[in-house]
Design brief:
about 280 residues, 7-stranded mixed β-sheet, 13 strands, globular, binds coenzyme A
Length: about 280
């Protein structure tokens, strides 16, 4: 908490500050230089109504940011949150959550009550932040959302994404903002898993998924560190991508949505476990 309180979150609109944001992007997306947004595009975008919040350390260094803009998607008015990033040395101190909560407050001031963004279903830490800490929900799965040309984004994996819907005035989101996230209530002992994680030649890999489960809560295993797997065992990483691609939309079609994400400590296993519920 000490480190968090020394950080100041500021709404920024000056070109000089956007250079700082570019520096953060270089550290956060170190392996994907093509995702970086140029300072002058951010400047133009903010002049047109985009919102950029920077997290500043006491020495003036920007250590994180969140970037969103208003628009319409599928008939709904919303802010689309394009980027959230915290540099590695400042992670796990609550900054990502703090930036999102300030983003929520700023968006609400404009009268907009919905914020959406995409996240990779294999990035369990992001799911944890979005679903548990922020109270976002998702029932939309995009296959290869941004294309996989030259492996520019996901290191050669198809860029599948979930669309997060953050309903800013929903009681669940208000409770999250007040630090009281609602957790799914189910009996861990009776939880049916859509597939198992099994070791294949020393590497943990998902078994064939079962799409016929009918329980109110269904568990879905996600490895804790997909990024390492992408480079060390790309075939296994692809297998995770394809099994999750089959499972999540398969259950979305039956009316399930993603409502919780257990950390390895909570799931008493080496993996994260997502909870689907209907
Ligand atoms: C995602 C990211 C912004 C999170 O930033 P952060 O400052 O480390 O996040 P916080 O400390 O605010 O943590 C937010 C929540 O996620 C959880 N979390 C964060 N890192 C975690 C980890 N390694 N393992 C388990 N949970 C984790 C925290 O427990 C916290 O939840 P809680 O409040 O319920 O405990 C940061 O990891 C990052 O920049 N990643 C790369 C860029 C990226 O993927 N951005 C897209 C985000 S959708």
């Amino acid at each position: 908490l000490g480190a968090k309180t020394e950080i100041e979150i500021r709404k920024i609109d000056k070109i000089i500050d956007f250079f700082g944001i570019t520096e953060v992007q270089k550290q956060v997306w170190i392996n994907c230089p093509l995702v970086i947004t140029s300072p002058h595009l951010v400047k133009v975008h903010v002049d047109m109504g985009a919102l950029v919040l920077g997290a500043y350390a006491p020495d003036g260094q920007v250590v994180g940011f969140v970037y969103s803009f208003p628009g319409h998607r599928r008939g709904e008015q919303m802010h689309w949150s394009h980027m959230l990033g915290v540099i590695p040395d400042h992670r796990r101190k609550g900054l990502g959550k703090l930036l999102k909560l300030r983003q929520r407050a700023e968006i609400l001031k404009t009268g907009i009550e919905l914020c959406s963004w995409t996240f990779d279903p294999l990035q369990a830490v992001n799911a944890r932040l979005n679903i548990v800490a922020l109270g976002a929900r998702t029932s939309e799965y995009l296959v290869d959302a941004y294309g996989s040309e030259g492996g520019y984004l996901d290191g050669g994996l198809p860029t599948d994404r979930l669309v997060a819907k953050w309903e800013l005035t929903h009681p669940r989101v208000v409770e999250c903002a007040e630090g009281r996230p609602e957790r799914a209530s189910f009996s861990p002992r009776d939880l049916q898993m859509a597939y198992q994680a099994e070791k294949v030649r020393g590497v943990v890999s998902p078994s064939k998924p079962d799409l016929s489960l009918k329980d109110s809560h269904i568990g879905l295993i996600v490895p804790p560190e997909i990024n390492g797997l992408k480079s060390s065992h790309p075939k296994t990483a692809l297998r995770w991508r394809l099994v999750v691609r089959q499972t999540i939309p398969g259950y979305f079609e039956k009316g399930y949505s993603l409502v919780d994400c257990l950390t390895p400590r909570e799931s008493v296993s080496p993996n994260f476990v997502y909870i689907l519920h209907r």
